């Protein structure tokens, strides 16, 4: 089968033929229809410091996908050939304290699809049945392909109650934009989102941000003044991993404010801990999606009318992967989809 592979320990990707994945009695083999390109995939293509320590070659990339079940193992129940499915890309150990307690997203031995094992940028992908999400309600194929990052957005946005709250989102990448859409749908009052890309800020306005702020020329304190906020933001969603964004966020939170942090910093950085203490701010790290509470939430949010259409800004056939990756790497648009069918 055709697959997008990191073949050797150097920058770049290769479209090449690889054997179909082997499956066991508990596994599901999925014919891939569409996939989403993630920042993780860009890191692996670029072969940066993170990728070099996280990925062994050769490796088939990709973890954001929708597909159709091609076959199921003898022990698999409730999933049938022909089902439309996406997959939870974190494979957990099932044995650690958190796994045993049902808190699988907190597993200490998570293996990432397309990172620690072969992924979904291929004609077929295999997953344990316990990682397969069956779409039982009608769903747009492009949106189904990005359930993984949509789940990051939902997990982060709904970590703290935000009905009537003033929400600050730093970083208007696809996940930040989807978090803005979720916050609007879920009843936040003001939603301020920051970035330095005018195109991304425009998409954020389309999904319901109150104010999309270019922080290269306007600071967040100015946004507070424009909106008439007097005590700061109640909820912060940090989506950029950038030190200056986290510092700005801490500076603009209300006393008792709560920050959910999904953006992954490239290295250690300093923040004003005295401010966090005296403002009594909660900071919670978010990684992945709750299995499968977040997946349930995604499905019902879409059923309830949440519109993620503006988030998809590019579609390519898989043969044109280099152009698709280049567009994703420019970081000026939304989600880029690869078509495999
Ligand atoms: Zn991803
Ligand atoms: Zn575990």
Automatic annotation (TrEMBL):
Key words, A-Z: Cytoplasm, Metal-binding, NAD, Oxidoreductase, Zinc
Q: Which Gene3D superfamilies match?
A: Medium-chain alcohol dehydrogenases, catalytic domain (3.90.180.10), NAD(P)-binding Rossmann-like Domain (3.40.50.720)
Q: Which cofactor does it need?
A: Zn(2+)
User: What superkingdom does the record give?
Assistant: Bacteria
The residues the record assigns to binding Zn(2+) 1 are 38, 63-64
Listed pathway(s): Amino-acid degradation; L-threonine degradation via oxydo-reductase pathway; glycine from L-threonine: step 1/2; Metabolic intermediate biosynthesis; 2-deoxystreptamine biosynthesis; 2-deoxystreptamine from D-glucose 6-phosphate: step 3/4
- Segments forming domain Alcohol dehydrogenase-like N-terminal: 24-133
| Pfam families given in the database record | ADH_N, ADH_zinc_N
Question: Which EC class, in a word?
Answer: oxidoreductase
Cofactor, how bound (note): Binds 2 Zn(2+) ions per subunit.
Q: Where in the cell is it found?
A: Cytoplasm
Q: Which reaction does it catalyse?
A: 2-deoxy-scyllo-inosamine + NAD(+) = 3-amino-2,3-dideoxy-scyllo-inosose + NADH + H(+); 2-deoxy-scyllo-inosamine + NADP(+) = 3-amino-2,3-dideoxy-scyllo-inosose + NADPH + H(+); L-threonine + NAD(+) = (2S)-2-amino-3-oxobutanoate + NADH + H(+)
Q: What is its EC number?
A: 1.1.1.103
Q: Where is this site: Important for catalytic activity for the proton relay mechanism but does not participate directly in the coordination of zinc atom?
A: 148
**Active site, per annotation:** 40 (charge relay system), 43 (charge relay system)
Q: Which residues bind Zn(2+) 2?
A: 93, 96, 99, 107
Question: Per the database record, which ranges form the Alcohol dehydrogenase-like C-terminal domain?
Answer: 174-301
Q: Which InterPro entries does the protein's record reference? A: ADH-like_C, ADH-like_N, ADH_Zn_CS, GroES-like_sf, L-Threonine_3-DHase, NAD(P)-bd_dom_sf, Zn_alcohol_dh
Which residues bind NAD(+) per the record?
A: 175, 195, 200, 262-264, 286-287
Q: Which family does it belong to?
A: Belongs to the zinc-containing alcohol dehydrogenase family. DOIA dehydrogenase subfamily.
Question: How does this protein assemble?
Answer: Homotetramer.
Annotated function? Catalyzes the NAD(+)-dependent oxidation of L-threonine to 2-amino-3-ketobutyrate. Catalyzes the oxidation of 2-deoxy-scyllo-inosamine (DOIA) with NAD(+) or NADP(+), forming 3-amino-2,3-dideoxy-scyllo-inosose (amino-DOI).
Which protein are we looking at? Answer: L-threonine 3-dehydrogenase
